[in-house]
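[Q] Does anyone have a clean C-alpha cell version of this?
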Amino acid sequence: MLTGLAFIGISVTKSYSQHQHRFMPVREVPAGGSTVPYKDRIRAEVEQLQTRSSAAFADKQFGAKSRLLAGAGAGARVSSDCGSGSYLCSQISLPVSLISFSGERTGEGTVLLSWETASEMKNAGFEIERSFSTTSQFSRAGFAAPVQSGAGRYIFPDLNNHQGITYYRLKQLDLDGTFSYSQIIAVDGMKGEIVLFAAPNPGRASEISLRLTAGDTGENIHLTVYDMRGIVVGKEQNFKPGPDGRIQLSSLLPSLSPGMYIVKVNSAGTQTAVNLVISR
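[A] Here you go.
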C-alpha cells in the first residue's frame, strides 16, 4: 500500500518458568478418569490471559490493525525485526511510502516518468497505467520491478506520441495480492507540425471544410483568409476545431465569393496554409 511503514513491539509478561513458585503441584481428576496436572491447566489459562491483555493493549494504543500475530503465546519470539527479548511483533500493512511522482515529455514521442519512495517492504512492484482521454479509463503501459529494500528511485520511459494530454498513475502491488494507486498526473501532448486539408477543393463555400491533423487540435487556433492580392478578406480568432480537427468554413466565413484564396492557420505557435478554390 502506498502509505508508510511501522513496527509495533509489545512487551510480554515473563514466561511461566519465572513464576513457577505460584503454582502448587496439585493434581485433579476430571470426568473420564484421566489426570491433568493442575499447574499445566493454570499455566495455559495465564498464557491466554497474557495474550488477550497484550492484544487489548495494542488495540488501545495503536488501533485494531495492530493485532498480535496468530498463534504466538507468552514468551514467543516472532520476528528478528522486533529486536532481542520476548516480544510479540505486529506489523501494520504499510509497506511503501511514495515521496514523489512526475512525468515530462523529453522528445518527440517519449514521456519520462520518475518516482521516489522513502521506504519499501513487501513491495511486488509498480504497474504504470495511462489514459489518453479521461482520468478513469486506464490501461497498462509497463511494469517496474521493486528495489530490494529501503528507499527507491525509479525511471520509466514511455513511448508516447499522443497529440493531446496523457494521464498517468502508478498501481503499487503488494506481495499479499493487494494494491493501491498513486495520484494521477497529466503530461502534455506532442507538439508536431500541423497539416491543413480542405475538401472538397474546389467546392462551394457551404460545402468546404478544413481539417487540422498531426497537431494539438485541442489548442485555440487563429484563421486568416487572403485573396490572391494578399489582402485579408476574412479572419477568425481564438476558436477550437471539432473533436476530429474539422473546421466548417461556411460557419466562419459565409460571405466569400467564388475565386482563389489562401487560408492560413496558426495553432500553438505553428503556422500552416492551404490554397482554396471556391466555385459557384
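[Q] Thanks! Anything notable?
[A] Residues 36 and 206 are 103 Å apart (CA to CA).
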